[in-house]
Amino acid sequence: MCGIVGLHLREPSLYPRLGTLLTGMLCQVTERGPDSAGVAVYGDPRWSPEGRVTVTLLTGDRTADVVRTAVAALVPDVAVVDAGQTLVLHAATDVDALVAAVRTALPDAVVVGQGEAVAVLKGVGSPQALAAEFGLARAQGWQGVAHTRMATESAVTPAHCHPFSVGADQCLVHNGSFANHATIRRELKAAGAVFDSDNDSEVGARFIAAQLAAGYDLEKSLRLLCERFDGFYTLLVSTRDSFAVVRDAIACKPAVVAETPQWVAMASEYRALAGLPGVESARIFEPEPEEVYAWQR
Predict the structure, then answer these.
(1) Residue 197: which of 148, 145, 161 has the closest Cα?
(2) Is the domain of 146 the same as that of 103?
């Protein structure tokens, strides 16, 4: 059992409230996953300044100053923001160049997010404590997803937390399990994919990233996932400009969507949506099995 929440803002006047709203949503699903938590925020000027690319890292005990010094030898203008168990790096270069510099300077660090607009933060601990550690309530932007984890098949570490972000500005959060993830992992490895964890959710994230890289849009990528993956799942997947939800053929994992002209939100339980502005007039529904629901920015 895990908890998923996501918020896609259509109304720019709400952008300054993204972090506050997302914090409230995340904390409402605490009981679904007290082990660890993670968030992905699109468009925050602290973490993803305009004109710069962002990479987020798990670096163990290294301080922000140590990481900055190591990476600055390869990318001189790199800046590092301390977000607790995650460090956020940004620089005026391209995404691949910053990722390559990080992997060269810090070969044992784990890249947990990358892109022009997204910052991914993860950690072990209660969602409330982690939201405070991240400074999530101060975040701004147009979109965010978050996850609380109750581990069932892999270790409780920051690297095993959701969201899984394995392509530029792409994120996946997952409630459930994939029965055939080992088979698909082998196929993806044979095609060149490198994994950072043994979490089955990472297999789903890398499968979707491979479909997007092949030229499919997010909706088609999720339809292909439904064809290939066995198991019970609710998925929320985001890119810089889109936000999509899909459930398995039985749809036994809970999910509810609310939509207004100002925003679209999804959560594992309605109580996570109850505090959103204007929710009393929202269209509220439960996603149908294997139907992909997608919204564009």
Answers:
(1) 161
(2) no
N residues, the chain: 297
Give the integer Cα–Cα distance in Å for 171 and 214: 17
110-115 and 118-124 beta bridge pairing: unpaired
Cβ neighbour number for residue 268 with a 10 Å cutoff: 25
| Domain, as residue range, for 213 | 3-47+138-296
Give the SS3 label for residue 39.
Answer: strand
Residue with tokens 């932007």: 141
Backbone angles phi, psi at 246, to 5 degrees: -150, 150
In the chain, the amino acid numbered 203 is: V
- Has 161 been annotated as catalytic? no
Give the model confidence (pLDDT) of 223-239 as tens digits: 999 999 999 999 999 99
How many structural domains compose the chain? 2
* Token couple for 62: 């290294």
Structure tokens at 209: 């990233």
Q: Catalytic residue among 2, 27, 161, 171, which?
A: 2
Element (H, E) at 265: strand 263-267
Residues lower than pLDDT 70 in the chain: 1, 33-34, 150-156
* Structural domain includes residue 124: no
* DSSP calls for 276-293: STTGGGSEEEPPPTT--E
- The Cα–Cα gap between 103 and 141 comes to 28
Structure tokens at 292: 């992909």
211 and 291 together in one domain: yes
Cβ-contact 113, 11 below 8 angstroms: no
